[in-house]
């Protein structure tokens, strides 16, 4: 997800594991049942983790015997104990101690701690939410839903987190408001009902937090956490805007939800051990929804701490919304892909911030910028050699020559340093303006950035033209014009940066799951963090416009909170199903959702970009049927992808049951009761037909009849059995089988085709996409 970080937070790009020769922090998973037995045998004297730590201290002789005699045998430093969503602990362990630990009964796995990365008012209207109607009507806003946001902390004084009009804190809430640097228990209120900070893992990896630039407290020094929390559940704030742009009311998706902030992310990233501690605590505290706008590299679920902790949260009834990552448009980049996680892609809304370049030869190009001010008249255009020395093409630090640049417009290519950082260099060198150019990889995707000088961004096609213009013209000039805010653009369009499927870890599950607004999103911002985060930027704003799957994820968190209050008995899987089966795949002009890579919607996006489609909150409140999934079903899925007993125990032991894989009939991964279909035809597979089973639950109208309607993927015939489902009552479950048969001539490897299965009744249409892959 590295790219995504450069998208908005360059400092978070780093994903690394700092290894010291002596000892490292390890995240250790232990069998919960066996730890309970150990607890029982210890009586009241101590807990299982004390015994485990004692055992490793005693049974691991130091290699250096001499040192050993001089020094006391040291106990491993225990950072965290996990007991609810996860079972295990985080501790500083030497290699020897780790070896001893592995011999303990109940040990499941251990991995070095590592840093993961963060992936960023008009949106409620775009999503069809209206005050006084449907999901935003009084009864649905009255009940108490608590959203836990695991992020960079929060700016508690922000107007978006005021609590006027909210009833008292729900009595079931067990969380707390932790005091720390510039953060007091009085900073929490009836809106921000909890705030905690976790940094033991981070400090063990990256050293002590520098308190001149960050806080050892839940206070946000970065902006990301304040932005995501207000997107999910911030108050309605009238006349919110960014320096005069995007004027209107800013509001969280469920503006009456309570927020609990769990700070785990700092300058270099977020330590796994801290994230696990935050999720474990959030589940104990009583959150209903977890919003996770962060992640790491895709890896098997048993070694993916985000997946493990999310499983435990889901097993405890918590809905987990997570960002898909910002590594698109390359395929198979999607992260946070465990089937129990909601994996959210990012797309554009209908709002843009247009700007215009006119070259000396009269040619005009449309760009994007959050700079808002007077136009720049025709000025000389400089680039690369004509602007400075080595690196001037990218406008990197110190590369531009003031003599060459002063009073001119500088052309800069994307790459290496941040987009706003390039503008800072141009300004420092005395430039009058900047034109930022995409490379062919970024295509026609345009970010509106809060540049500190008159600057705008153009797509790859304009870039090619301008470079040849610069080459062939001795006196190249350009003028810049900034056009404010524009609405009613065709939308949604998939963001090029949004990570794409198919999932490498679980190709049998279609990922991402849905898309939601994630480009140029206006939300709350700490007033002492500049909108560009550049030191030279002295602007202070209450709202900032940022992009990323980090921004789309909290939209889904807030919508899930609305669904949860409308349907208190729905499981996390049911909420997910409702959002997926009602998602749409056409834009506001009636065409398939486009892909920003190509510009002008000339290339349509696929289900590997948007999953089931764009979320439609009001439809999701009344989906007709749901595909429910139990904790046991997820464990059976893990059996079907051939995880061994110790790998499965990492998940199974959390839910406290004696789970064993069914041995009579081998389950297949595609049988997980998922609301979408991923079908894989392997070259070598014997049978040309794949058959999956599904069960739907009636949550609509008691007596209703649903008819199957299939849109067949290219090269595949699909049959549904039965193709009519007749329900008599609410809560009734009916099952069906769907068979996919490949046509003989269709065998091209690495190829995909797409279709859908709809269950249609008089009142409902329940849609599941079908994504076929030939391997
Ligand atoms: C902390 O950050 C400040 C400001 O960037 C810097 O001047 C200082 O050297 C840093 N302190 C340490 C211990 O790194
Ligand atoms: C510009 O000219 C240089 C040198 O003649 C050449 O290498 C480069 O490919 C040209 N670039 C474009 C965009 O035409
Ligand atoms: C977009 O469409 C306009 C008019 O239809 C055309 O002039 C322009 O070249 C197109 N741009 C791209 C990037 O396809
Ligand atoms: C499961 O697989 C892991 C990794 O290959 C291995 O370390 C472990 O011993 C296996 N467990 C069992 C019970 O086979
Ligand atoms: C799990 O199995 C063990 C041994 O068979 C038994 O003692 C224990 O009660 C079982 N636990 C649950 C939750 O069923
Ligand atoms: C897949 O099929 C193609 C065409 O029939 C064949 O050339 C290729 O060797 C096959 N690959 C595998 C891995 O079986």
Automatic annotation (TrEMBL):
<protein>
    <submittedName>
        <fullName>OLC1v1039033C1</fullName>
    </submittedName>
</protein>
<dbReference type="InterPro" id="IPR023828">
    <property type="entry name" value="Peptidase_S8_Ser-AS"/>
</dbReference>
<dbReference type="GO" id="GO:0004252">
    <property type="term" value="F:serine-type endopeptidase activity"/>
</dbReference>
<feature type="signal peptide">
    <location>
        <begin position="1"/>
        <end position="23"/>
    </location>
</feature>
<keyword id="KW-0732">Signal</keyword>
<dbReference type="Pfam" id="PF17766">
    <property type="entry name" value="fn3_6"/>
</dbReference>
<dbReference type="InterPro" id="IPR045051">
    <property type="entry name" value="SBT"/>
</dbReference>
<feature type="domain" description="Peptidase S8/S53">
    <location>
        <begin position="143"/>
        <end position="611"/>
    </location>
</feature>
<feature type="active site" description="Charge relay system">
    <location>
        <position position="224"/>
    </location>
</feature>
<feature type="active site" description="Charge relay system">
    <location>
        <position position="151"/>
    </location>
</feature>
<feature type="domain" description="Subtilisin-like protease fibronectin type-III">
    <location>
        <begin position="671"/>
        <end position="772"/>
    </location>
</feature>
<dbReference type="InterPro" id="IPR036852">
    <property type="entry name" value="Peptidase_S8/S53_dom_sf"/>
</dbReference>
<dbReference type="InterPro" id="IPR015500">
    <property type="entry name" value="Peptidase_S8_subtilisin-rel"/>
</dbReference>
<dbReference type="GO" id="GO:0006508">
    <property type="term" value="P:proteolysis"/>
</dbReference>
<dbReference type="InterPro" id="IPR041469">
    <property type="entry name" value="Subtilisin-like_FN3"/>
</dbReference>
<dbReference type="InterPro" id="IPR000209">
    <property type="entry name" value="Peptidase_S8/S53_dom"/>
</dbReference>
<dbReference type="Pfam" id="PF05922">
    <property type="entry name" value="Inhibitor_I9"/>
</dbReference>
<dbReference type="Pfam" id="PF00082">
    <property type="entry name" value="Peptidase_S8"/>
</dbReference>
<dbReference type="Pfam" id="PF02225">
    <property type="entry name" value="PA"/>
</dbReference>
<dbReference type="InterPro" id="IPR037045">
    <property type="entry name" value="S8pro/Inhibitor_I9_sf"/>
</dbReference>
<feature type="domain" description="PA">
    <location>
        <begin position="378"/>
        <end position="463"/>
    </location>
</feature>
<dbReference type="InterPro" id="IPR034197">
    <property type="entry name" value="Peptidases_S8_3"/>
</dbReference>
<dbReference type="InterPro" id="IPR010259">
    <property type="entry name" value="S8pro/Inhibitor_I9"/>
</dbReference>
<feature type="active site" description="Charge relay system">
    <location>
        <position position="550"/>
    </location>
</feature>
<dbReference type="InterPro" id="IPR003137">
    <property type="entry name" value="PA_domain"/>
</dbReference>
<keyword id="KW-0720">Serine protease</keyword>
<feature type="domain" description="Inhibitor I9">
    <location>
        <begin position="25"/>
        <end position="119"/>
    </location>
</feature>
<keyword id="KW-0645">Protease</keyword>
<comment type="similarity">
    <text>Belongs to the peptidase S8 family.</text>
</comment>
<keyword id="KW-0378">Hydrolase</keyword>
